Amino acid sequence: MAQLPNSLEARDTAFQLHSYADARRQEETGALVIEKGEGIYVEDINGKRYIEGMAGLWSVAVGFGEKRLVDAAARQMEKLPYYHTFTYKSHGPSIELAEKLVEMAPVPMSKAYFTNSGSEANDTAIKLIWYRSNALGQPERKKIISRVRGYHGVTIASASLTGLPNNHRSFDLPLPQILHTTCPHYRTMKKDGESEADFAKRCAQDLEDLILAEGPETIAAFFAEPVMGAGGVVVPPDGYWQAVQPVLKKYDILFVADEVICGFGRTGNMFGTETYNLQPDMMTLSKALSSSYQPISALLINDTVYQPIADESHKIGVLGHGYTGSGHPVAAAVALENLKIIEERDLVGHVRAIAPTFQKRLAGLAENPLVIETRGIGLIGAAELSHEALAATPGALGAKTNAMFHDKGLISRNMLDAMAFCPPLIITEAQVNELFDIAEAGLKAVQESL
Ligand code: PMP
């Protein structure tokens, strides 16, 4: 990308350090600068239009340019642009949103706690779990288990939960109390001759073996996404959750469902918890909660979690935790309006209606010889490319394909060589076809260029 002096691209390179980028490469190539968006499309500063095939970062459920969210923010800005929820204070939007989320929860939940990002929600979950263990007189019960390739954020604790090397390497992570168990990706993790059903059972056995090796009385909680997102869209094999959940129950280990991507319709139910019949004690929510129009996240906790925490805060005299922006009134007002849109337009029913086309077109990408596996559910999916097709370096072919998709007007995201697709939930059937027509053409062009 040629950078004109004083252009936005040049100023971006000069002044901004980016997330999930190679800073030296950034200095050379610059960034794609997006200016506006409408529906499933965004437009860059040069007027080129793209399908936002990732809904931003798996998040803009109702699409770009939704006026009702703009108006909800403006109304709240005028009335009360900021207030907090510390020290026995509150405000309408946070109260309404807490009530709404507890009512929407697919399993009994007792309280909502607000944070500003998925990372903070998971980080707060860990702190509350540790606080609870102390409250219960079980100070040794502090270890947390998550999964290899799980993604739970980037704060010191949530990055430790995340089971991806790039989030640990050179950051001196993970924290020693955080352990990782087997990733439920059948193709890469199965043993020779192991059936999918046996693999699902072995994942649960691996979890139990880890618990026993560490000492069950030291394990406080298990964190997992119903469907893994940023680790490459890993849909668990049949029988996985049925095998894993009894292990947690057996050792009295709390289950935290990270619904940051799955929540609010993505998998064809309001929550991934419903899709997989999960019984979490806590749920973390963000992204589609406000369609990312405002940064907001929430943690739902059941009564088993709440009661000891309440007792401990009473004993100490205060729950010493909270963010200035927790339950921010503008973010909460936008989230409430966003949830109204999701319900009024029955976006969950829409996902269910359109998912068969989405999944069929995704599976069709496997006709290209570069594609070695496709996987997905609802309106989320990935096509895994054979990295050997280009070079031994994992991720090189994914990056090349990503650039080709961009050229052809589709914003996707390569997690190494897995090309992810996670469009806004409002996408129409015709637009699903438009998205995959571009992906097919892009893959063909990459294949021909090799
Ligand atoms: N959990 C999951 C499942 C996520 O996908 C993400 C973000 N991709 C997070 C947590 C972290 O959220 P944030 O980037 O808002 O901190």
UniProtKB/TrEMBL annotation:
<dbReference type="Pfam" id="PF00202">
    <property type="entry name" value="Aminotran_3"/>
</dbReference>
<dbReference type="InterPro" id="IPR015422">
    <property type="entry name" value="PyrdxlP-dep_Trfase_small"/>
</dbReference>
<dbReference type="InterPro" id="IPR015424">
    <property type="entry name" value="PyrdxlP-dep_Trfase"/>
</dbReference>
<protein>
    <submittedName>
        <fullName>Aspartate aminotransferase family protein</fullName>
    </submittedName>
</protein>
<dbReference type="GO" id="GO:0008483">
    <property type="term" value="F:transaminase activity"/>
</dbReference>
<dbReference type="InterPro" id="IPR015421">
    <property type="entry name" value="PyrdxlP-dep_Trfase_major"/>
</dbReference>
<keyword id="KW-0663">Pyridoxal phosphate</keyword>
<keyword id="KW-0808">Transferase</keyword>
<dbReference type="InterPro" id="IPR049704">
    <property type="entry name" value="Aminotrans_3_PPA_site"/>
</dbReference>
<comment type="similarity">
    <text>Belongs to the class-III pyridoxal-phosphate-dependent aminotransferase family.</text>
</comment>
<keyword id="KW-0032">Aminotransferase</keyword>
<dbReference type="InterPro" id="IPR005814">
    <property type="entry name" value="Aminotrans_3"/>
</dbReference>
